[in-house]
């Protein structure tokens, strides 16, 4: 090989390498990747946890007594400081404020009252500005936690609520892009919590005395894998050892749709179906022969799923209304995590999907999807008109529009297929 030819070959290889590296820098994540089995242990680095306590005047009613709000805030501070590599606590309104009180993590909640919260401009807040400030301080090694009543400070005039939601979308889209530039996936956990409230509830420019339970929100933002670990170790559940007063949770991720394979799903028979025999191939999802009870009008069978590694709340996963089955003659009749079958010993914590095929029209393949949609509780807990009176205890002003704005950053730019949390294909070779 001549020196000139060798030189040309080297130049060509360098050009190819530059193109390959340039493409890799865009970090286009392949769709259709497989969810790890729930028997796989995932390890994540321990980030710094930054907790932001919103301290506008509308928050005073949560801290006048030894409320569930204080208990929940103490839970977050204590557990984060004990498990993670560092914990920082700040007040936030029109800006971020760090005081000597914020340095005393052990006694912060004990010293928290309406007087000690008078830091910065507490007359009003802009929740979108708060999101922007927090996300600008959220990096690949930082988990950010906002504790706030999340009130949009706008009136229900014209398109102002829609404009506020669009602003929320834009702010979170920037955070998602920043995470992807760092070759990570971005996630958000939205929790509604209930607490005793003793103070004034602000309805626009009106101040309404309130001595009852009121909702507030804990919103966690950061790297998706670290958030999944945070959700587990911080016990973000309404249990005796979990987050006091938590009533609802919704988890969003920029992760593309997961595919389920034999490591995460198995088809099996059970005592509530009329499939006499199901023999599965080695992959567990390709059924060689399904022997039917011809005396029954419909076919019933079940799927065992090992999906505990999904970035999704268990209440969302167990709601059958969040699933789609194709073709349409197949329906999901129940989703639960109570079944105890030897076939499911393959999984740590199996979720059971019970299905029915209506009539005798069976097909060689069914597809099951867990779609990502705003949960019904968000709409139930929201109102967007100025009432002039104290709203129902579980409702917040325009919380749906706020969640819709966050959802828009993750999913509205995607086609319907990309909004699925997972997809599962089951093949039937023969019926008899």
Low-pLDDT windows of residues = 7-31
Helix content: 25-40%
What letter string, H or E per element, gives the SSE order?
A: HEEHEEHHEHEEHEEEEEEHEEEEHEEHE
Report the radius of gyration as a whole number of Å. 25 Å
The first-to-last residue Cα distance is 67 Å
Globally, the shape reads: elongated
Largest sheet: 7 strands, mixed
Q: How many strand units? A: 20
Strand content range: 25-35%
Protein model, in words:
- With 432 residues, the protein is of the alpha/beta class.
- Helices cover 25% and strands 31% of the residues.
- The strands form 4 sheets. Strands 1, 9, 11, 12, 14, 17 and 20 form a 7-stranded mixed β-sheet that branches. A 7-stranded mixed β-sheet has the order 4-3-2-5-7-6-8, with helices on both faces.
- Helix 5 (160-181) crosses helix 9 (399-412).
- The N and C termini lie far apart (67 Å).
- The model is unreliable at 7-31 (pLDDT under 50).
């Amino acid at each position: 090989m001549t020196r000139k030819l060798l030189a040309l070959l080297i130049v060509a290889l360098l050009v190819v390498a530059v193109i390959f590296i340039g493409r890799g820098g865009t970090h286009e994540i392949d769709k259709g990747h497989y969810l790890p089995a729930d028997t796989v242990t995932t390890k994540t680095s321990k980030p710094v946890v930054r907790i932001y306590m919103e301290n506008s005047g509308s928050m005073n009613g949560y801290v006048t007594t030894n409320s569930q709000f204080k208990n929940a805030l103490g839970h977050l501070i204590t557990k984060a400081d004990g498990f993670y590599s560092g914990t920082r606590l700040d007040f936030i309104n029109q800006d971020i404020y760090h005081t000597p009180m914020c340095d005393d993590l052990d006694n912060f909640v004990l010293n928290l009252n309406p007087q000690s919260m008078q830091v910065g401009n507490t007359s009003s807040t802009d929740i979108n500005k708060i999101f922007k400030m927090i996300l600008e301080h959220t990096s690949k090694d930082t988990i950010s936690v906002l504790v706030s009543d999340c009130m949009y400070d706008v009136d229900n005039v014209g398109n102002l609520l829609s404009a506020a939601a669009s602003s929320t979308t834009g702010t979170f889209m920037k955070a998602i892009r920043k995470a992807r530039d760092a070759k990570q996936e971005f996630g958000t956990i939205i929790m509604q919590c209930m607490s005793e409230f003793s103070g004034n509830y602000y309805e626009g420019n009106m101040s309404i005395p309130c001595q009852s339970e009121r909702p507030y929100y804990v919103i966690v933002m950061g790297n998706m894998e670290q958030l999944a670990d945070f959700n587990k170790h911080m016990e973000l559940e309404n249990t005796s050892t979990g987050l006091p007063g938590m009533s609802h949770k919704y988890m969003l991720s920029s992760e593309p749709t997961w595919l389920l394979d034999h490591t995460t799903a198995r088809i099996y028979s059970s005592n509530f179906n009329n499939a006499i025999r199901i023999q599965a191939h080695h992959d567990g999802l390709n059924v060689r022969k399904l022997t039917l009870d011809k005396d029954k009008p419909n076919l019933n069978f079940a799927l065992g799923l090992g999906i505990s590694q999904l970035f999704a709340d268990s209440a969302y996963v167990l709601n059958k209304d969040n699933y789609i089955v194709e073709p349409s003659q197949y329906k999901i009749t129940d989703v639960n995590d109570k079944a105890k079958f030897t076939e499911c010993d393959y999984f740590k914590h199996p979720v059971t999907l019970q299905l029915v095929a209506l009539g005798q029209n069976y097909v060689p393949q069914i597809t099951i999807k867990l779609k990502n949609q705003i949960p019904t509780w968000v709409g139930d807990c929201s109102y967007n008109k100025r009432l002039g009176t104290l709203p129902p205890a579980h409702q917040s002003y325009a919380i749906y529009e706020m969640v819709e704005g966050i959802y828009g950053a993750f999913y509205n730019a995607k086609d319907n297929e990309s909004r699925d949390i997972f997809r599962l294909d089951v093949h039937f070779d023969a019926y008899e």
